[in-house]
Every structure is written in structure tokens, then in C-alpha cells.
Design brief:
51% strand, 116 residues, 0% helix, mainly beta, seven-stranded mixed beta sheet
Length: 116
């Protein structure tokens, strides 16, 4: 079982990034998937969740209106489109299998740094 996030990097405030999380080793199409982030010195924060069928089911208040979650069940991949990035979005972003904590599996993250 593997969840591999990618797409992070350094971006200026107001910029955009799209994160991807490629899943393998399980039946991706029957699971909710969730993006979680952890900023330096802080605990994990649930960012967004999506149903097995591809309907966004949760956004945190801090990202609502700026981030969009989606998935491609043919490619076993979940995405997080991030627009209007702010310095406070700086964090390690990872995807997890499940709707809410405790997730039964999480992958390695990808680092997003928002700075001028």
C-alpha cells in the first residue's frame, strides 16, 4: 500500500500549486481520501476530504474558497488545487486514506513553502 504525494515547492504569496497523491496497493475507488497538512511546530490539520465518487465533502475554514480537491479514479490519484496561497499555508502536505482521523494509512508528504 502506498500513497505518494508530489507537487510541492516554493511559491510566492498569491500563487498557485497543484498537489497530486498517487495511490497503489489497494482499491482506491472505495475509499474517502483526505488531504492533511502539518505546519512547522503545529499539529496536523485536516484540509479537505473527497468521497469515493469524487464529491468534495470537507474543506477547512482556512482554505475554503481557495483550495479545490478532486480525484481521478482511473488514475488512482487525488489532487489538491491551491490558489491564493498565503504564508500560513506553508506546511508539509500529505494524503491519507479515510474521511477523518484516525486515518488507517497516510503517505509521505510534499512540502509547500509560501514566501516572497
Amino acid at each position: 500500500l502506498q500513497l505518494q504525494a508530489s507537487g510541492g515547492g516554493l511559491v510566492q504569496p498569491g500563487g498557485s500549486l497543484t498537489l497530486s497523491c498517487a495511490a497503489s496497493g489497494f482499491t482506491f475507488t472505495v475509499y474517502y481520501m483526505t488531504w492533511v497538512r502539518q505546519a512547522p511546530g503545529k499539529g496536523p490539520e485536516r484540509v479537505s476530504s473527497i468521497t469515493p465518487g469524487g464529491t468534495p465533502s470537507y474543506y477547512s475554514d482556512s482554505v475554503k474558497g481557495r483550495f479545490t480537491v478532486s480525484r481521478d479514479n482511473n488514475e488512482n490519484t487525488v489532487y489538491l488545487q491551491m490558489n491564493g496561497l498565503k504564508p500560513e499555508d506553508t506546511a508539509l502536505y500529505y494524503c491519507a486514506r479515510g474521511y477523518a482521523t484516525p486515518y488507517d494509512y497516510r503517505g509521505r508528504g510534499t512540502l509547500v513553502t509560501v514566501s516572497s
